[in-house]
Amino acid sequence: xxxxxxxxxxxxxxxxxxxxxxxxxxxxxxxxxxxxxxxxxxxxxxxxxxxxxxxxxxxxxxxxxxxxxxxxxxxxxxxxxxxxxxxxxxxxxxxxxxxxxxxxxxxxxxxxxxxxxxxxxxxxxxxxxxxxxxxxxxxxxxxxxxxxxxxxxxxxxxxxxxxxxxxxxxxxxxxxxxxxxxxxxxxxxxxxxxxxxxxxxxxxxxxxxxxxxxxxxxxxxxxxxxxxxxxxxxxxxxxxx
Length: 241
Description:
Layout: E1 6-13, E2 19-27, E3 32-33, H1 65-69, H2 71-77, E4 85-92, E5 96-102, H3 103-116, H4 127-131, H5 139-159, H6 169-189, H7 197-217, H8 221-235
Antiparallel strand pairs: 1-2, 1-4, 2-3, 4-5
């Protein structure tokens, strides 16, 4: 893989003078977002304010890494209403994606990327997905990417002779933890601003986090349907090499 930084730029046009350009740089070694010089972190981001009950950093960290990751978004879009429309162009090295959508979806897409690259250990399993960021992914796309990414991690654990989780039980647990992080952030954001786009963006993220364990309990039926044509050929001995 390339050792070059991963650059992503969001251009957001909400009409009138409300235009925003948000450059994002991800360090390829750590897969964490590079952050510039910032002002003092806000009080609402302190780790003792609505911390996750099992936060692994609570003893030695003054501020929640997940909260710090979205501070800029909270400040920038605190006045926005969820269903305000925006035209968004996302520029990446490989492609450019443009769409018209609501501000809650725009912030949700940004927040998902910022959280995955925040350095929070509870969210580290999302780093490979952030490396191959897909803005405004559908639920089905996110489910496929999440399971595929996790199974690739299990392959590498297997290669190293370490226990691997082919039944996705640990992935279920990680999404339960992700939902706890989302709830903590939602508690922090309530009452901070006039607009509701920020908190509803977190709610959108949490809808998938809550749904994911149920999808595994049902045997990932929708993904099995997607894979069935290929499975039928493989079960018959596969195509000739």
